Every structure is written in structure tokens, then in C-alpha cells.
Amino acid sequence: MARRVWRAVVEGITPYDPGKPLEALMGELGLSELVRLSANESPLGPSPRVVEAIRREAERAHLYPDGGSCALREALGRHLGVSPAQVVIGNGADELISLVALAAFDPGDEVVVPVPSFEPYVTSVTLAGARLVASPLAGYEVDLDDVRRRVTARTKAVILCSPHNPATTIIRRAALLALLKAFGEDPPLIVLDEAYCDFCDDPDYPNGIALLAAHPRLLVLRTFSKIAALAGLRVGYAVGGLETIDRLNRVRAPYNINRLGQAAALAAVSDAEHRERTRRLVLEERAFMSRELARRGLTFPGSQANFLLVKIPNAGAVRERLLRAGLVVRDGAAVGFPDHLRISLGTHEANQRLLRALDAA
Question: In the predicted model, what is the mean pLDDT of residues 250-277?
Fold first, then answer.
């Protein structure tokens, strides 16, 4: 009998497809420029303070980084009003999701995940040998009543995303508090991914970190990829109870955040003005694009993120036409929403260009 080398579960995993590099696409299409509105990246880019911090730190690239990201955790603790011991830094939120699976999920455990949602949730559950318990979205909304009904004594964790990727909607305060209360004194781990929280302006949006004192099994995920524009450096963080953070640190690689990423994130924490400029631009362009798309008869859920999920007939064909016009958007079918396009908010110029191309398409 032939030797089995690879785990059988890996055969069922579909590799994440980030799309072709812009340079390769430009070469294929014969274009000198492409505007990427498919990855929910910042339209402003990083703070000048961040760029300078990276430049200074580059001279020390031959030295191992701080294995515990101590200075960054101290700064985040002050910024968020929590102890640095409640913070763990990850190589993007993706690694943090993997750490939760490594530390908590045993074969046979159940993990409740609203679907569709951010792909790494399902991948981490599958690789751990746990059983995914899917809770279908109610249209574009997370159905917390359905989530609650699916939780059993075998449920190890519930993974929620608010604002939701890709649906753009939020879990409201009263609904989240009701869910947490319903779990009682021995709840499963509740992972609340707030990667897009900085772009939310709905007063009914709950701050997950403010709920940690009363709910020690709540774990909040955030990232520097969006509001701080550090997507290329991969820095995220989780905030939770001391026991939860201790367990994540036990399975975390010792030097998981490189020197440049730590220096950049530390500079980003200190630059509130740049964060506010980025937030203001996104909110202004979200309102502009929402008005313009609605005026064209297109429908979409009210977004609380830095992107829109737009229902468009023949979305795949429209996406190809936009691509030939030099604009890259995400096919909704790839993220669980056929006949939709996920469109990141860009600069005003880029958004106007997109509208013109949509009109032509």
C-alpha cells in the first residue's frame, strides 16, 4: 500500500485566490494602469509617519523582531483602555483565526459560522477537524436567532463578523447582548471579527472591546490592514480575556510579526489625524457611491464598511468589462453572492471613473 503523506482533510480545502498581481493583469490586458477596487484596501495609503518609521526600521532588518510585540501591545492597551496582557498581535487577522483553531478546536467539536462570510473561518474549522455548523444569512443580515438555535453542548465556538464581509451589514447592540446573555455562565468562545469597525457610523453598533469585562469568553479581532492601510505588512490583533490570550500565545509562533510591521503599526496607533482622514474619505465616498448607484437603479445593502456589495444583472460579464476598462472589482459569486459585485471605495476620481465604466457596461 502506498504511503499516505498528506492529511485527507487538505484535499477538501480550496486555496484562497487573491487574483493575479496587477502587473500581470496589466500585461495581459495591454493596459498601463489598473485601479484595484477588489481588495478593500485604503484609498489614502499609510500615514507619512508610518512610511518614515518603516524607513528607519529597515536598517535593523538583520535583527530578530520583538517576539512579543511588547511596545505595540503597550500602545494598543493605552489606546483601547485595556491591559497589554489582553492583547495578542497576529500576522493579519487570518493568523489570529488560525491560532483560535489551533488552541481551541478538537476533532468533533462544532463551530457555528454565519455563511457566506470571510473564507478563513471555514478553512480553520475544517483543518482542525471540527464540524462547521453553517447559519445562513437572512438576506444580507446575520440571523442571531438562527445562530443561537444551532448552539449545542458540543459547540466550541461561534464566529461572527460585524461589519460583515462581504455583506457590509452590522450586528446591532441589543441583538448581540441578547445572544451573549442567552449563552449563560458557560458560553462557547465568541469570536467577533471587527476588521471594518472604523468605518461604521451607525450609533447602534456595539464596541466589542467594551463588552469584554462582562464576557470573558468574547474575543475581538481587529486589523491594521484597513483603517491604517498596512495590508501589505500583515498586522492584526485580538483583544480578550487573560485566559484566552494566554492560550493563543501558547500556539503563536515566536517571531510572527516582523520588525517593519511592528514599527509601522506602532506609528499608526499614534496618528489619529490620518485615521480620521481615512475614515472621513470613506464615509463621504460611501454616501456618494450609494446615491449614484441607487440613482442608476442598482440595489445593495446599506454599507457600514469600506466597500459595497451591489446586485448587478450579469455581474460576471460586467466585471470583465470593467476589467478591460482598467478597474478591478470582486465577483460576488466568489464570496457567496452570485449576481453581485463587491466594490471597494476608492478616491473620488476612481469612484467617478467606475461609475462611467458601469454606465458604459
Answer: 97
